[in-house]
Amino acid sequence: MSGKIGIKDVAAAAGVSITTVSHALNGKGRLPTETRERVREIADRLGYRPNVNARNLAGGRTGLVALTVSQEPELAFQLGDFDYFASLIRYATTAALARGFALAALPPVADNEDVFHHLPLDGAIVVDPVPGDRSLDYLRSQRTPIVTTGRPVDVAAEEEEGYWIDNEHIEGMRSVLDHLAEVGAERIALVLPSYPASYVADMRRGYVEWCAARACEERIVMARDLTEPAGFEAARSLLDGPEPPDAIYASLDRLAIGALMAAETRGIEVPGALRVACCTDSYAARHAATPLTTLALNPEQIGEEAANMLIDLVEGVEPRPRHRFIPTKLLPRESTLGGTAVATGAA
Amino acid sequence: MSGKIGIKDVAAAAGVSITTVSHALNGKGRLPTETRERVREIADRLGYRPNVNARNLAGGRTGLVALTVSQEPELAFQLGDFDYFASLIRYATTAALARGFALAALPPVADNEDVFHHLPLDGAIVVDPVPGDRSLDYLRSQRTPIVTTGRPVDVAAEEEEGYWIDNEHIEGMRSVLDHLAEVGAERIALVLPSYPASYVADMRRGYVEWCAARACEERIVMARDLTEPAGFEAARSLLDGPEPPDAIYASLDRLAIGALMAAETRGIEVPGALRVACCTDSYAARHAATPLTTLALNPEQIGEEAANMLIDLVEGVEPRPRHRFIPTKLLPRESTLGGTAVATGAA
DNA sequence: CACGAGTGACAAAGCGTTTTTGCAACTGCT
DNA sequence: AGCAGTTGCAAAAACGCTTTGTCACTCGTG
Question: 0.85 exceeded by the pTM?
Answer without folding.
Answer: no
